[in-house]
Amino acid sequence: MARRLVPVAPGQLVGRATLATPLSCDQRPPFAICRPSFLTLPPVATTIKGLLIDPAASSLRTVPMRLLATLACGVCLCGSTLASAATITGEYLEARSCDVYTGPCFANAEMDLAGKEALMAWKVDAGSWNGVTLDGLSVAVIANSEKTMGNTGVFKMKAGKIRSVVLLDERASKEQQAALLAFVKESASEYTANVVEVRQVTMTLENDHLDGRGVFTAGDVAKIETRALAKGDCVCTNEISFSSDPAERSASLRPVFRSRVWKPCVASSPLVVQRPPKPRDGSPWASLSTLLSVLPPEDASMLRFSVVCLCCALSNVAFAAAKVSPVDKLPGGLSDKLAAAVTPAGQQLVTDDGAVCTLWLAKDVATKPDFKPSLNVKYPFQTGQLIGLLRVDKASEYTDFRGNEIAAGVYTLRYGQQPVDGNHVGTSELYDFLLASPVKVDSDPAPVKSVDALIKLSTQTTGSNHPAIFSLLPPAEGDKSPGVIHDESKEQWILSVSAAAGGKMVPMRVVVVGVSEG
Hints:
Layout: E1 13-14, E2 17-18, E3 32-33, E4 47-53, E5 60-77, E6 88-97, E7 117-129, E8 132-133, E9 138-145, E10 162-169, H1 174-187, E11 195-201, E12 203-208, E13 213-218, E14 222-227, E15 256-262, H2 284-294, H3 297-315, E16 323-327, H4 336-341, E17 342-351, E18 354-362, E19 386-392, E20 409-417, E21 432-438, H5 451-462, E22 468-473, E23 483-487, E24 492-501, E25 504-513
Parallel strand pairs: 4-15, 10-11
Antiparallel strand pairs: 1-2, 3-5, 4-5, 5-6, 6-7, 7-8, 7-9, 9-10, 12-13, 13-14, 14-15, 16-17, 17-18, 18-19, 19-20, 20-21, 21-22, 22-25, 23-24, 24-25
């Protein structure tokens, strides 16, 4: 049976979650998620058997899949700063489609292929919205996005256009329907900006907080059932940090799915495998779309993956002509100290579409005496020292090694090493990286001695709490310097350069285009 929660105050401990600031509708959705006390392990997504109703078929079809879910011990809708302030208590459950759980430092192979569907359900135990009592009523949102739904904090991903269907409790009066719709649009505004249908259905939502079990049903449209984590479930320490549900800044947990049943709400259902845009007659996408709709799920997934790989390969044909061209002038906007520390001779990566980025190196790069490379560290540099400058010449589609978008402009490149902690286990065997910071905030070439200060500078490039990083790969004998290397297996473009260091030259490989595989 669902438990009710009393309204919470800023800083008050709720279950295992602490609200640091008042919840405000103009800043975040007006509710907080409590972490169930029955769950002692980190959240996890595991394999389940789901039932997917195919709109083109008359029978149920069993589909093996993995899902990410959020089961709320209780939902507390706190007073907002709006004139129509309200306090609501109740239950919340969320389902997301994804095959591999993604934490702050991890990316999975299904990015842009999965994780495009979500179901969010609320059950109001007591409270009102816009002055209308909603006791005992439920509301749900079923959403579909163009791309993978991701986090807007640590690990940025843009979901693109999101279409949604809102399910309202059929017991609600006209006035209550309007209030429920207004509430859900306020609580999940990002997911309800483009509502394609509003439907009334019979809904139930029960969270068993003793067994850690949640069940949601919406007529014959959807059924979600979860269980608590078990000792045998595979988890890691990063899951708790990745949350893109409406309460993304509140603590939440994701139990494991036992089953899922849902079917389309509209002809272009947001719960059906997303197909390409409506094709012109005779276009190859028409046949592909038809084929995807009739193939078994596992075969359709393989076909989609193959098509994506083919498209990626074709899209890189033009990029294959990339070359490195010398430049003999420093970029503008540098401080006098910074300009004096960097050689004006730079190397520019150029494609058929024009310049992508330009790299300048410091005139003299200090190295550690008696340095010997290890398995993880290949470069003799000190953390925080200036290695050079990077100018992003291409204003769009340029990212760092983690996939963070980098705006056109000039950045310092300082040496840093991947932290040895639980958040970075398995992300990279090599610890050598360059951290990019805007020259307008990093104008002194002197070493940045504090790691925290170095990270803080670089986060101003990404706009998140993770620095902008570029991988340093071990140089290989025979590398042409300057030169450009294309790693086709990883789709990375690498500048091969040499830095002056006390009368010697230190060969370097800098990944300037491409993202991490981990």
